[in-house]
Amino acid sequence: MNNIFDNIVELPNKGIQERAKNLVGFDSKFDRIFSNLKLLLDQEGLSEWSKKFHKVELPIISQLQEKYPLIILSGDAGTGKTISAEAIADRMLRELKKDGFFLKLSTRVRGEGLHGQMGNLVNDAFSELKNQAGKRRIAFLLIDEADAIASTRSTMQMHQEEKAAVNTLIQKIDELRELNGRAILFMSTNRLHFLDEAIIRRAAIILEFERPTFDERKQLFEKSIGEIGLNDKELETLADLTGEKHNNGLAFSFSDIRLRVLPEAVSKCFPSKALDFESVKETIIQLNPSPKII
User: Tell me, what DSSP letter sits at residue 258?
Assistant: First the structure.
């Protein structure tokens, strides 16, 4: 299995929980996904709810079993899709008081020269996902950059073995419904329009990730470096400088700020002086946001 997964993480996980604290706008994303997945996980509770409020079990209760445990995370690079998938899985198991595993499909599966094997590797990945899902366990599989292996079959450029791999993936998504929510699939993509239409139709939720708004950028700076003594006006200035107005219509992404701006600002100051507003401001002015993926 080493050639299939980048890692397999046991959940709940303290490291993921700590990283989630720095995610801006996470709660609303989690609430939407968790409220939907509870419909798959608690069929007995749904039946009781229906009888309590409607005196009968509504037909929709059994129809909900037909939902696919598939969540598509769509958005530009650096908007937090991967860490959000991990954090959603971790918090979900904490809420449900259950254990589980988070599996991330290796990028090697999508590597050069593996097209002929791709169908078999997808098959093996889902077999392991099912193995990790037990009566008291929920297993999650993340397919990052999913458009690389789940691109639309309607394109003339797609090889036959690639189409076969997409067919296998669709079949495996269909089979996940048999596990009644004990196995959940995340697929993230920068290019939703490249995903196969049959996969998009199966998604229980398509969650859009955008570049951060002014308020989100301000919150991100406050969470990351607020303790250096920045006042509200300075935080607003940093949020403004990383916005569309100063960068040809394209704001800095979450990862631009977290992994480029702030580390470079720290490097300007370490080890001879304290990190300050001017150092961060100067760094922002010198950098450009990462380009948008189309």
Answer: I
At residue 70's C-alpha, the angle toward residues 65 and 75, to 5°, is 150
Q: Is the dihedral of CA 180, 181, 186, 191 positive or negative?
A: positive
DSSP label at residue 136: S
Q: For the chain, what is the mean pLDDT?
A: 91
pTM of the model: 0.88
Instruction: Output the six-digit token pair for 143.
Output: 């397919």
Predicted local confidence at residue 164, as pLDDT: 84
Strands (E), 12-136: 70-75, 99-105
CA–CA distance, 170 with 172 (Å, rounded to integer) = 5
Residue ranges of the domains in the chain? 5-209, 214-286
Instruction: Specify the CATH class of 5-209 in words.
Output: alpha beta
pLDDT of residue 158: 64
Element of type H or E holding 48: helix 43-54
Task: Give the residue from 208, 167, 204, 203 showing the smallest Cα distance to 190.
Answer: 208
256 contacts 220 by C-beta, under 8 angstroms: no
What burial letters (b/e) apply to 14-50, b meaning 16+ CB within 10 Å? Answer: eebeeebeebbbbeebbeebeeebebbbeeeebeeeb
pLDDT digits (tens, 9 = 90+) for 48-102: 999 999 999 999 998 988 899 999 999 998 899 999 999 999 999 999 999 999 9
